[in-house]
Prior knowledge:
This protein is of the alpha/beta class and 188 residues long.
Amino acid sequence: MLSRNMTENLHLLIEQHLKMWGKQNLxxxxxxxxxxxxxEFLHRQNQVQHLYGFDVQxxxxxxxxxxxxxxxxxxxxxxxxHHNLEHYIEGEIDLALFNLGYLPGADKSIVTHTETTLVxxxxxxxxxxxxxxxxxxxxxxxEEGRKxxxxxxxxLTTYHVREYSILHLNVKNVKKACPNCFLIIRKS
Length: 188
Ligand SMILES: C[S@@+](CC[C@H](N)C(=O)[O-])C[C@H]1O[C@@H](n2cnc3c(N)ncnc32)[C@H](O)[C@@H]1O
């Protein structure tokens, strides 16, 4: 059931998209591993076979790796910024998730930055397969997050509707800035 919890909504929508799409042997990417919850979710999807995860903090790689022990999928966790993704992922990307901001419970100064985030998102959009999905969660509740959110929103409007469907989900009836979710689907 959809709720005001944006991560839960996002996961439900991704599952529904994959089910209706039906494509198998998918390549998925988690652009911001953090505590590994999103990686664990992506790994749980039967259609996903190749999984790449990025983070700039070793502790994020450790926490994420611990969540998917004993896998029979191809999983690569990479200690590098997501904007260098083409050094690690050669072909198309079917599914990508960027949960932006800082790692909860860790150093809040290590946060995603607008400039590198936009470079990474542009590269993912270029590599997205037909029918592929890129999901981006933004957090306008803190200063860098607000700037990042506004730039991403503006950046996404530059893409033509013939090539991508771009959806925006947020909660309207709360006073505090809540997480926003952008869903970008490359049209087949
Ligand atoms: C909100 S957390 C991600 C939450 C995570 N997906 C989860 O399920 O727990 C954001 C993460 O982005 C990471 N990060 C910041 N800048 C980055 C960059 N340029 N490339 C990759 N990861 C980055 C941070 O280290 C932090 O772990």
